[in-house]
Specification:
The chain is mostly beta strands. The protein folds into three domains: 306 residues, YVTN repeat-like/Quinoprotein amine dehydrogenase (Methylamine Dehydrogenase, Chain H), CATH 2.130.10.10; 89 residues, Immunoglobulin-like; 315 residues, YVTN repeat-like/Quinoprotein amine dehydrogenase (Methylamine Dehydrogenase, Chain H). The chain is built from one helix and 63 strands. Strands 13, 14, 15, 16 and 17 form a five-stranded antiparallel β-sheet that branches. Strands 54, 55, 56, 57 and 58 form a five-stranded antiparallel β-sheet that branches. Strands 1, 2, 3 and 4 form a four-stranded antiparallel β-sheet that branches. Strand 5 and strand 6 form a beta hairpin. The protein starts with a helix and ends in a 10-residue tail after the last strand.
Length: 752
């Protein structure tokens, strides 16, 4: 029998039950008192001895703790099991006269006990308290378990040298041992990350540092420490190992990065044996066998206090409970109702009114984890106040919200917002160009298969095939792009019947006008046609007037222009947006952005294009809100599975976006009623600032399939249209870009 084995003799016996109150919720230190036959309990929250000692006989020595039990070895072949809540003690009898070290698997299901008299490692089922394996190990002493539970390490002496036995816990079979320098290994400790094993070697006064990462099992260093090293522990951070140096009455402090001793500190007593560390790594606890106390060393301020316990404290092993934080009970977020607001009107929602805290934990933060608030609103993540002034009317904007307390516990809810236009928003007429040829007007109150309120049509109108319509407010005029008539015709906004245009701009030298945009700030008119890339005229030009500017087109590579179908302007920032598409496969829609004054064959400043943008292969139609600087793009693509279906959507960007930018939001889905037959096309988009509405035109060769849908500009997702205007009674025939015209207009002679 080796020296360490002899030190374990003559200490232990039958156990009995004792009730001594409930255990603390804080980590406890379980100190085995070998000469007084009991276990003292120290509450590490206060560092005071808690209650009366738990009587346990004879001569308790090594100890290990699980979540619910403390396991104590004796030298009579018994293992005491202490219920930590009730302090009830039961006994497991093992086939060995003297037991040495004890350790518990990380999941608490297995107990590993060294039997020094029987040269064995016992594997005990913690539930049944039966031995399920007896593994031969010569003169075993200390034992430690890898944090993942895959390996158990046992110190032993084969009669010639110290070694470490390695147990595969899956098979309970031994692997190749680890050879050490010296004789008589005592305490073992594994680093929290499971990469290092530290073994006290009694005869040589060293600690072997062993690499066990990936089961390398190679000695890295033999670290000289004080005489008679017994217990060892690695702190939870893995930065320090603490060694109980029995003969020098000190704690050796090992830096695990360098494997060197960086300090020796006193223990507050004599004969230090078992050693452990607090859950927060600030204190080291050592059982001083010869002084009948526990020294508590504060490693932060380098002080030590002692607590008297029973006689002959040993506590060989991990004797402090692993800290288990209290359950993180999340705060209660009562269901926040969906919210309504008004564009242009201040909005406020205090989320704190819907939150109840638990465990007296204050709320730490309010965070949006998905979705986005309507434009103009923001969340104060500290207070939970959502406030601001909404800028756009819309439905379906939503946020997923997390509310977290200072323990990190959180709860969530989803809030849907509806923002309506300002009260008393101007009523409007929907004016729709139709290939009949006509411009057909419908009151905003009309919806579905209804007859127009008025019709502009007849020989005097000179209309051939009108395809684009824009309302110009300074003159209260309708600008009509007449594709086949190769002209832009201007009519009073209330024109109807067989009325002649007030002015006509002849663009026949520059192709067939597809798209119009009026810049009232700079008094200009931009026209994009089938025979040219956008041309700019003075707004009041008439006849066959040459344009002020003309962007290059027709084989020119710089502009990247091919099929311009839409123009939108940001006059406040001197920008022009052009809806276009590639001329070669794979065909892709794109938005080209130029300076307003761009002229000739010049490259765009930016291009929005790519799969993330969700701009489809079809030519994109545009609308722009100069207040929020949001660019609306009407686009489509053929269903990849069912080629008879065309998916139509409105994707929204900020005016500063570039490249393959993700949309701010999208309007699409079955409820939106945008999807059409593959033969039909989205054919125009416009924005009405007075009511915050978007008008979407759907072109079809089938008269009954032509329709105009209206959405709020701030809508998102699969929302139903506000109106769906279509059917035989409308008289629609191959319709194109509609426009909203305010009804309550007082424009006469420049006065409002």
């Amino acid at each position: 029998m080796n020296l360490v084995a002899r030190r374990f003799r003559g200490l232990l016996g039958p156990a009995f039950a004792l009730m001594s109150g409930l255990a603390s919720a804080d980590p406890l230190a379980w100190i085995t008192n070998s000469a007084s036959n009991n276990v003292s309990v120290i509450d590490t929250a206060t560092d005071l001895v808690s209650g009366v000692p738990v009587s346990i006989q004879p001569s308790p020595r090594a100890v290990a703790v699980s979540a619910t039990r403390a396991y104590v070895t004796h030298d009579n072949g018994t293992l005491s099991v202490v219920n930590k809540s009730t302090r009830f003690v039961s006994t497991v009898t093992l086939p060995s006269g003297q037991l040495g070290g004890v350790a518990v698997s990380p999941d608490g299901t297995r107990i590993y006990v060294t039997g020094t008299d029987n040269d064995a490692l016992y594997v005990v089922n913690a539930t049944t308290q039966l031995v399920i394996a007896t593994v031969p190990v010569a003169n075993p002493t200390g034992v430690a378990v890898k944090p993942d539970g895959s390996r158990v390490y046992v110190g032993y002496d084969d009669g010639f040298t110290a070694r470490v036995a390695v147990l595969n816990t899956t098979t309970n079979a031994l692997m190749s041992p680890i050879g050490l320098s010296g004789r008589d290994p005592t305490g073992l400790a594994v680093s929290p990350d499971g990469t290092r094993l530290y073994v006290c070697v009694f005869s040589s006064a060293t600690v072997a540092a062993i690499n066990i990462d990936l089961n390398v099992n190679m000695v890295l260093a033999n670290i000289s420490v004080g005489p008679d090293p017994r217990g060892i522990v690695v702190n939870h951070a893995g930065t320090r190992a603490y060694v109980a140096e029995y003969m020098s009455n000190q704690i050796g402090v090992i830096d695990t990065a360098s494997n060197t001793v960086v300090n020796h500190v006193n223990t507050g007593g004599n004969g230090p044996w078992g050693i452990d560390v607090s859950a927060d790594d600030t204190r080291v606890y050592v059982a001083n066998y010869l002084s009948n106390n526990v020294g508590i060393r504060n490693v932060v301020n380098n002080t030590v206090v002692t607590r008297s316990v029973g006689n002959g404290p040993i506590a060989f092993g991990r004797f402090i409970d692993e800290y288990v934080p209290p359950p993180q009970v999340p705060p209660v977020l009562n269901d926040v109702p969906n919210q309504n607001g008004t564009a242009g009107v201040a909005f406020s929602l205090d989320l704190a009114n819907y939150v109840s805290t638990t465990n007296a934990d204050p709320i730490q933060s309010y965070d949006i984890v998905a979705g986005a608030l309507p434009g103009g609103l923001s969340l104060n993540s500290n207070t939970g106040l959502i406030s601001g002034t909404p800028t756009l009317a819309g439905r379906g904007a939503s946020i997923s919200l997390n509310v977290s307390d200072d323990d990190g516990a959180s709860t969530s809810d989803t809030i849907v917002f509806t923002i309506v236009p300002p009260a008393g928003s101007a009523p409007f007429d929907v004016m729709v160009p139709s290939a009949n040829p006509s411009v057909r007007g419908f009151s905003q109150a009309l919806n579905g298969n209804v007859a127009p309120s008025r019709i502009l049509s007849g020989a005097n109108t000179q209309l051939v095939v009108p395809v684009s319509l824009t309302y110009e407010p300074t003159e209260d005029m309708l600008y009509v792009g007449d594709f086949s008539g190769r002209a832009v015709r201007m009519f009073p906004a209330d024109a109807e019947g067989d009325s002649a245009p007030t002015r006509v701009l002849d663009v026949s030298n520059y192709g067939q006008p597809r798209a119009l945009a009026v810049d009232t700030m700079h008094d200009e008119l931009v026209v994009a046609g089938s025979g040219c890339f956008p041309c700019t005229w003075a707004r009041t030009d008439i006849g066959a007037t040459a344009p002020l500017r003309r962007l290059g087109w027709g084989g020119n590579t710089a502009t990247q222009g091919n099929i311009p179908v839409a123009v939108a302007l940001d006059p406040n920032n001197d920008l022009m947006f052009i809806g276009d598409s590639d001329s070669v496969a794979p065909y892709a829609g794109k938005v080209l952005i130029f300076p307003r004054t761009a002229n000739g064959d010049v490259a765009p400043s930016r291009v929005i294009k790519g799969p993330t943008s969700r701009i489809g292969a079809g030519s994109p139609y545009l609308a722009f809100d100069p207040v929020t600087r949001q660019l609306f793009v009407l686009t489509s693509n053929i269903d990849p599975v069912n080629a008879s279906i065309r998916h139509v959507r409105v994707v929204v960007f900020h005016a500063n976006d570039n490249g393959d930018a993700a949309p701010l939001r999208t309007i699409e889905g079955g409820t939106a009623q945008l999807d059409v037959s593959a033969a039909d096309l989205p054919y125009g988009l416009s924005y009405d600032p007075s009511t915050h509405r978007l008008l979407v035109s759907i072109y079809s060769n089938t008269a009954a399939s032509n329709r105009v849908l209206a959405f709020y500009a701030g809508d998102t997702g699969n929302v139903a249209p506000l109106i769906n205007l279509g059917g035989p009674n409308t008289g629609f025939d191959k319709i194109s870009r509609a426009a909203a015209v305010p009804v309550n207009r007082l424009f006469r002679n420049g006065f409002e």
